[in-house]
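Hi all, posting the design record for the shared folder.

TITLE: backbone redesign
STEP: 1 of 1
STRUCTURE INPUT:
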């Protein structure tokens, strides 16, 4: 097995119950990230939000794993690139703590647009220069 077939398999791998994993993890992720955003907006102490941060990171990791299992091409798709951009912005927060609320709102906007744009845009792959079926 070479690296290309491992990361960009043809045909794509299928994960049993992928939809259920995705919906479950996204539901938990929305609850946790919404709680975190609200906590920062209303000045809740950081230690009160720590558990929610761990839940958000764990549920986000499950979503990422489900997406990457089929093919790493997802990272070259517009939807995957939106996630990479969100992660980059989140990594800025410890260095720009006073700007965390506006940064978190930008992350939510990217998430909303990225998740709800038409599939022909969301699944467009820069690697394959088109939507890969």
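Okay, here is what came back for every position:
SEQUENCE:
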């Amino acid at each position: 097995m070479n690296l290309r077939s491992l990361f960009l398999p043809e045909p794509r791998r299928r994960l049993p119950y992928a939809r259920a994993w995705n919906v479950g993890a996204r539901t938990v992720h929305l609850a946790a990230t919404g709680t975190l955003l609200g906590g920062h907006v209303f000045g809740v102490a950081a230690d009160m939000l720590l558990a929610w941060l761990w839940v958000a990171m764990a549920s986000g990791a499950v979503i990422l794993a489900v997406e990457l299992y089929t093919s790493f091409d997802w990272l070259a798709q517009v939807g995957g690139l939106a996630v990479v951009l969100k992660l980059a912005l989140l990594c800025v927060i410890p260095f720009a703590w006073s700007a965390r609320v506006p940064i978190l709102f930008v992350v939510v906007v990217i998430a909303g647009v990225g998740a709800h744009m038409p599939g022909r845009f969301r699944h467009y792959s820069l690697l394959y220069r088109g939507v890969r079926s």
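COMMENT: The mean pLDDT is 94.
Let me know if anyone wants the other runs.
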